[in-house]
Amino acid sequence: MPSQQRTLEAVSAATASASTSTKRKNPTRDDEDDSESDSGSDVSMINVDFDFYNFNPDVDQIAIKRLLRQTLSHDDELIDVHPLADLILSEGVRLGAGSSIKTDGEESDPWGLVGVVDILENRNNPAFSPFLNYLLSTLPSISPLRLLLDPSASPAAASKPALIFSLRMLNLPLPLIPHLYRMLLSELQDQGFTDYLLWGRGYRLEGGEENLGLDMNDSSSKKNKKKSGNANANNGLPLTAGTFAYHPEEEFIDNVATHVHTYPFKTAPKREEDAFGVEQFGRLVLISGDKLKSAIEAMQAACQ
């Protein structure tokens, strides 16, 4: 997608400074190379400008709460997302780190964001400790994640962990995501974090399900849909069996992660043998800063 690549390079060049509330206002268009389209195609292409902004606590809270509930899935009733959303926003302001993506100016709702919370600084914060305790309750008794989530168990530990929240709508264009992570690491370079834990969710397929739009890595099928002019051309094809992150960019992080922990949602209803739909689960991934940087580079290369 040549036109998209040029605009993404413009975004990359604009990320050196971020002193104002409007962080990096460069358009990235979700378009395709129209030369691939047949002259008789009935596919309509819509150009959308995606802008990068610093967090705006006065505007972004409602959308962040909605995205937190989406990621918590069945367990959304176990966590009060209101104070947690406030903390993510306030940490973004305190650390000068984190970005949102919007399409209609700074006062509009974000389509996605990447933010971070300092675990050591907020371990006993009533806005954060219930969520950390929730994550701890999903871990086995012996886990490399346990001491990072509960530093009080080993106060002499030299680690300084941070919890990354990558929250977004599923249909956000993938080429935007590496820039969110790259900006985050750049903004955190002087904060001294040694480890990052990325929280999210995944889904499991048995292999017999029909394609319901979840196969986000199948670029060839997208091209075939465009050429045929039928957006549902491959919806009847079976999906590959396995477990996957809901955000396909997280696969690049998994590849170089120190540890990947998955857990069943506590309040998920028991699945019947003939249940319809994918089975969801929670994810917590441990990765060092250096490895995260290499994962971001791999993400960006895959999007070119």
Automatic annotation (TrEMBL):
Pfam families: BCCIP. Residues 1-42, 211-234 are annotated as: Disordered. One of its GO terms (cellular component) is nucleus. Coiled coil: none annotated. Residues 30-39 have a biased composition (Acidic residues). Residues 12-21 have a biased composition (Low complexity). InterPro entries: BCP1_family (IPR025602). Belongs to the BCP1 family. This is Protein BCP1. It comes from Kwoniella europaea PYCC6329.
